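Escalation from tier 1.

The customer reports that the assembly of two entities below gives different structure tokens on two consecutive runs. Tier 1 could not reproduce it. I'm attaching the input and our single run for tier 2 to review.
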Amino acid sequence: MEDENNTFDPDLIHAIFKLLWTRRALERERNDVADALDCEVGAGTSKKNRQTSANGKAIKLSCELLRIFITEAVQRAATIAEAEGASKIEATHLERILPQLLLDF
Amino acid sequence: MEKAMDMDMEMEREEEEEEETESVSDVLRDRFRLSTISIAEAEAKRNGMEISEPIVACISDLAFKYAEQLAKDLELFAQHASRKIVKMEDVILSAHRNEHLATSLRSLCDDLKAKEPQSERKRKKTPRKENKATTSVVHIPDN
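Tier 1 run:
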């Protein structure tokens, strides 16, 4: 039950992804407009710029990926904290595990 | 002169637009942070540890950055496959550098696929062909 409570809401992740994709699509559009002004052959590119969307299962999988990222960060930091005999995870512990964590993801 | 004014107006309007998306993303970021906090604290508890709040916030920011990067990757992967829709294989591909991660994502992907045909309450019209194609691409040793 705990597992079910503690994961990302797929709708939230979907909304975040959508926002980023919309932003990128807009950027591309702007660049294309600039290009079109330059060379006047911008026709027919609108199709290329249709926005990306995602399959529901793909979003679920991304949620899991992000969840794993967080649990890994906490778990690794906890291991370091334990080795140092601390009972609370502090900045130094996170600092120690950060380089490898970022390489792993 | 008039042209310059037009430009100014345009700039302003664009700024406004940007602000709007900015505030939307703030809401999303906050919701994201709340989820992260609950995940991180539960995980710390499981390890019999406490975790200080700034660290959770830091991990949350990292995760958000990672999500942004992930979104970019997924879009590029889908585009590379000349698709407009991100599929599970794209997500798996984004984790390809870490074998363990890729393997666990693959097994989860299979779980999701196995669940799909039984619970067709969403009735999303995903053609069978697609499913077959992905299973033939992804080889997973059952372990």
